[in-house]
TrEMBL record:
Keywords: Disulfide bond, Signal. It comes from Nicator chloris. This is DMBT1 protein. The keyword Signal applies. PANTHER family: CUB AND ZONA PELLUCIDA-LIKE DOMAIN-CONTAINING PROTEIN 1, ENDOGLIN/TGF-BETA RECEPTOR TYPE III. Residues 1-109 form the ZP domain.
Amino acid sequence: PYYVDMNQNLFLQASLHSSDQNLTVFVDTCVASPNSSDFRTLVYELTKSGCASDPSYALFPSPRSDVARFGFNAFSFVNRFPSVFLRCELAVCRYHDYSSRCYQGCVSRFKRNADS
């Protein structure tokens, strides 16, 4: 476990370990839960489809393409839950493949009207 104070800035880093130097990594979706084995019942979205859902969530510059850096302010699920667990989905893409998910950034999905 990693112990932090409420509203403390948390900085995280995801690193891709591969012999292929031509890959890049992108943080697509991160959710938090008070239960390490249940990320459906009670969850809090930090980012979804590359779009920040939490106002404190931010991406940070990275020294290499195979490292993604991000952060947010620490929070809790009311007082009865002592822990917060994270689950993040990352995309791995070819470096400089600008049509890949890694280079699209925030993807807002709007519902279309089925009338026409």
